[in-house]
Design a protein that fits this description.
- The protein has 227 residues and is an alpha+beta fold.
- The protein is built from 2 helices and 9 strands; from the N terminus they run ααβββββββββ.
- It has one domain (45-222).
- Strands 5-8-9 form a 3-stranded antiparallel sheet. A two-stranded antiparallel sheet has the order 1-4.
- The chain binds calcium ion (2 copies).
- Residues 96, 100, 125, 127, 129, 143, 145 line the site of one calcium ion.
- One calcium ion binds next to loops.
């Protein structure tokens, strides 16, 4: 009786070891098989987060337009309203200009629709520049950009100052660990079929997407580019 029990226990331990190895092998196979799908799911999560930021931001831009009668400019040298004329932008380094202008214009007056002080996690200062005085509402001299889910500043284009959008902007992109930030160029989008500007006379908010480069197929554009 005793011998039979011991023998059974020995077999059971043996099977457990084999089963363990089989389970490890199965897990390994599953990880290899589903890693691309998992990566794709994470990427889609970043895309959804980026789109959500664009939609909320667009709502702030429309609120600003309803309040001031014009869209926020994408050029820091342009002061749209008298009440902002005394505010000091400081010297422009030519980087991230459109989105920095948007941050500043949304940060002058809470009644104009800007709620960026509630979205500080969206803000980064990839080029490290500063204004001579604190930015109203944000309470800091940092000239912030609004970034997408990959940490690249959005490109903000406004057609307020003419029927056409201005040319390219220089964006200092996401910092990859151990490397200098990437300096990339962004251009406003045109409708692929008509060749006309997307959202004419209004604005565009463009994310470089997962490839961190602008004007490529994975860009996430507000409003959406028909493809
Ligand atoms: Ca900046
Ligand atoms: Ca891209």
């Amino acid at each position: 009786m005793n011998r039979a029990t011991q023998s059974g226990a020995g077999r059971s331990a043996g099977f457990t070891l084999i089963e363990l190895l089989v389970v490890i092998a199965i897990i390994g196979t599953l990880v290899v098989a589903f890693a691309p799908a998992l990566s794709g799911m994470l990427s889609r999560g970043d895309e959804a987060e980026t789109e959500a930021r664009q939609i909320e931001l667009a709502s702030m831009v429309e609120s600003y337009q309803r309040y001031y009668g014009e869209y926020p400019p994408d050029d820091l040298s342009i002061i749209v309203k008298d009440k902002q004329a005394n505010w000091q932008f400081g010297a422009d380094n030519g980087k991230n200009t459109g989105i920095e202008s948007l941050v500043l214009h949304l940060s002058f007056d809470a009644k104009a629709g800007g709620k960026l002080d509630e979205r500080m996690e969206w803000l980064a200062n990839t080029d490290g520049d500063k204004a001579p005085v604190d930015v109203p509402l944000l309470g800091t001299r940092a000239r912030y950009e609004i970034v997408d889910a990959w940490g690249t500043p959005f490109a903000y284009f406004s057609a307020t100052c003419g029927s056409a959008y201005q040319g390219r902007q220089v964006i200092l992109g996401a910092t990859i660990e151990g490397a200098d930030a990437l300096e990339v160029f962004a251009r406003p989008w045109k409708h692929p079929e008509t060749g006309q500007w997307l959202n004419p006379r209004k604005f565009q908010i463009v994310s470089a997407g997962p490839d961190l480069s602008f004007n490529t197929d994975d860009d996430i554009v507000y409003p959406t580019v028909p493809r």
